[in-house]
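Changelog-linked ticket: pyridoxal-5'-phosphate example.
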Amino acid sequence: MERETAAIHFGQSPDKETGARAEPIYMTSAYVFRDAAEAAGRFSLSEPGNIYTRLTNPNSSSLEARLAAIEGGSAAITAASGMAAISYAVLALTNPGDEIVSADNLYGGTYELFHLTLPNFGRTVKFVKSSDLEALENAITEKTRAVYFEAVGNPKLDVPDFEAVAKIAHRAGIPFIVDNTVGIGLVRPLEHGADIVVLSATKYANGHGTALGGAVIEKGDFPWDNGKFPKFTEPDPAYGGLRHYQAFGSSVVSTSIRVSLMRDLGAALSPFNAWLISQGLETLYLRTERHAENAKTVALYLKNHPKVAWVNYPGLPDSPSSKNVEKYLDGKGGAILTFGMKGGYDAAVSVQNNVRLISLLANIGDAKTLIIHPASTTHQQLTPEEQETTGVTADTLRLSVGLENPKDIIADLEQAFSRI
Ligand code: PLP
């Protein structure tokens, strides 16, 4: 199946009992066992099947199948949010004392997780400049268990050379994790050397700003028995000495998260949110095209505006990432752009206050156009140096360009600029 078709059909067929063509919503906490033997088999993992919605639910399962197909992976697990998915992926691969090497251009929430929270769990994250592959290679030590990048840095909007990063990670015997929140529908990192994709399904996967969700998707061919991942290869006392890699093979990452971290930490996706995200995915590729067209139109308008100092859009030829956008994203720059106001901080804040159609809020990936001034909001807690490495300056505004007619988006910006 081609990916556009998979996004509509994968993971769901007409309901056997009722004939319903669209997916029913399974709002249930638990599932009836046929008998005691089936119950015992499910708890020991010797029989597949539902036990409790913290572990599996038909709506999550169909979303997982659909996401795995879209990303070209072997298996997936969904979680209550993108942050939960990222946390589980990182915790699954590491033990206390282990390290991760990450690009420094991360979404602010991930940066705080890596910088402040993971050290409390005994994991250290070393940050390297997202464009400096030599620094990346030098930062990897015997203790490193993963390399972490965003497919399109949010809000720096730079695109890494996936294949070059993957080579460095694989030379060190460690997996390459890519956050594809912004890139879903534009790029399949698993086809360019990544081993695991994590994403916030809250954004472009859902597409309508209606539900939080996240996912971990694995490619399925990483050699986890190279001595660096004992949690996957050593006997698990929680399941009578089961060795996860031996038992689960190409779905070891997602299954291991499900039967250990999801069981114990419990940030499971609600069935209703899973359903909303599956619905959203049906139009992913249509939306991706229109978002990118609209964003390019708005970027070109901003570039020629006398009150705008600079524009950063990956889909323009002057973007520092244009080579990688051509190579990996089929030349499409996605829906997000940043721009700086000549009037600096005050002018940027004033634009936020004067837009009418465009919404001032902290999100991306909605059908509606959204704006935010990161320095005073999402990136407020970072030092000026940290802000700069994540692509934020005092004059920066981030626009998540929606699916409206671009004439209306531009008209709203024009009237907001005229009030400065
Ligand atoms: N990753 C990226 C790139 C994001 O932009 C976000 C949220 O904005 C997240 C992860 C976190 O996702 P969630 O808000 O679903 O927890």
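Closing comment: Example verified and attached. The chain has a mean pLDDT of 96. The two ends are 51 Å apart (CA to CA).
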